Amino acid sequence: MDTKDYRSKLQAEMTDNATYMEVNEDRTKTIEKKVKKMADDMCKKGSISKDLKGYLTSSVGTSGKLQGNPKLHKTGVPLRTIVNGRNHPTEKMAEIVEMELRAHVTSLPSYIKDTTDFLRKLENIKQPLPAGTILFCLDVKALYPSVPRAEARDAVARALNQRANPSIPTEDVLNMMDTVLENNTISFDGRKFTQTEGTAIGSRLGMNYASTYLGSWESQQINFRLSISGMLMTFGAFGFTVSSR
Hints:
By secondary structure, the chain is α+β, with helices and mostly antiparallel strands. It has one domain (3-241). It has helices at residues 3-15, 28-44, 50-56, 91-106, 115-123, 143-146, 149-161, 170-182, 207-221, and strands at 20-23, 64-70, 79-84, 185-188, 191-195. It has a five-stranded mixed beta sheet, with helices on one face. It is flat, with a radius of gyration of 20 Å.
């Protein structure tokens, strides 16, 4: 792709999208201080260990770097915005939140680890399928940036409260998640942006965060059953197999 076209398409994605807002200053140092204070407070009250506190505050400190992944299958070859969050002050908090949600996501009825896992599940369904059975897959457009934060926070809170042996209190995990989402700063071509909705494609806070929200949405919107006996199969391929197109 021509460099000029690449930059132009990325700029269009950032300026014509309600998900992002251009800002005038680099907030990296301010975010670093916020993360350090939060980690220090959690450590003092015993929510996290000194080692984890050190890990959370060990980033060098830089804003996310914007990249574009060409969607070759679409007309005009639009770009998928991907944020390289390496060394962002909040990225290690994002990692911890994802870890705390992992067990919940893998326990979702519609969870699929990979293609092999999907084929293995199909083997357990009685064949032939009952007349009228429909196999389908739902795809969410721009999944990560489209996740509504208020609804997702409620879903995450419920999931965290169901943990059998929580290593970090729910409220502290939620505060870390909020810090990640509210301070997702991005730089590109000399301009600076912040993400105002959803989460960034490329951030460590993404896969389990989005899957937790979708699992909650699914339970509310779809009469979902996965029957080993094969009486009924209505399969929504969420979890790790949901693509962000």
